[in-house]
Specification:
CATH architecture: 3-Layer(aba) Sandwich
Strand order of the largest sheet: 3-2-1-4-5-6-7
CATH class: Alpha Beta
Number of helices: 9
Largest sheet: 7 strands, parallel
Number of strands: 7
CATH superfamily: NAD(P)-binding Rossmann-like Domain
Distance between the termini: 26 Å
Order of helices and strands: EHEHEHEHEHHEHHHE
Radius of gyration: 17 Å
Strand content: 15-25%
Length: 247
């Protein structure tokens, strides 16, 4: 895949899907900025792995739920590289509980981490990328933002909102040459799913037409496509990466 830009910021990239996105994008020749909030050692490990494979990477600490920190991080990147060409809003949390047991704080904490942080990033990207009239943003959403899930009212709301927000930004930014898209992963092999009991995994897999969980690389390649020149006529899209579980 071809990339006209030179660099990318991935939020929450010290582990899991975010780390794999960083590695895949570095393999395509982009300088990858690995954002982390508290996992400094993990972020440095991702950087070292990318550099050992011949890629370019840097780490940048910021709590992206705080506007001043997110804006400052983007400023550092632009001052270093002369641009911010691509952004992947990946940072997020879960606080799963049945709705009757979920506090307002449980709800708003997840909305802030998953949706408000992405809004800050999308807005700052629009301001920064408008100077060159070029750029692409991919928001990491979730299948539960499309179909809902018991015990995840807050998470579902945050991801459903992210899908809608992506479409709105796409319409506002198109005239400036900037694209916004989202991906909605289904069950992906991560630390979180690794903790599931084998019988639970087997039950989930029965409902997936491809009969398996996805792997982080499959999500990362979808992200790479949506950022790249190969998808230059695609904006406002919500791309499902779920093995056919929700179509």
């Amino acid at each position: 895949m071809k990339f006209s830009g030179t660099n990318v910021l991935i939020t929450g990239a010290s582990r899991g899907i975010g780390a794999q996105i960083a590695k895949i994008l570095a393999s395509y020749g982009l300088k990858v900025w690995i954002n982390y909030r508290s996992g400094a050692d993990e972020a440095l490990k991702v950087k070292e792995e990318i550099e050992a494979a011949g890629g370019k990477a840097a780490v940048i600490q910021a709590d992206v739920t705080k506007e001043e920190e997110f804006v400052a991080a983007v400023k550092v990147i632009v001052e270093s590289d002369g641009e911010l060409a691509y952004l992947v809003n990946n940072a997020g949390i879960t606080k799963d509980k049945l709705a009757l047991r979920m506090s307002v704080d449980d709800f708003t904490d997840v909305i802030t981490a998953n949706l408000t942080s992405a809004f800050i990033g999308c807005k700052e990207a629009l301001k920064t990328m408008s100077k060159k009239k070029f750029g692409s943003v991919v928001n990491i959403s979730s299948i539960v933002g499309e179909m809902g899930n018991p015990g995840q009212t807050n998470y579902s709301a945050s991801k459903g909102g992210l899908n809608a927000m992506t479409k709105s930004f796409a319409k506002e930014a198109a005239s400036r040459g900037i694209r916004y898209n989202a991906v909605t992963p289904g069950f992906i092999q991560t630390d979180m799913t690794h903790e599931l009991k084998e019988e639970v995994k087997a039950e989930y897999e029965k409902n997936i037409p491809l009969k398996r969980f996805g792997n982080p690389s499959e999500v990362a390649e979808a992200v790479a496509f949506l950022l790249s020149d190969s998808s230059s006529y695609i904006t406002g899209e919500v791309l499902k990466v779920n093995g056919g579980l929700y179509v």
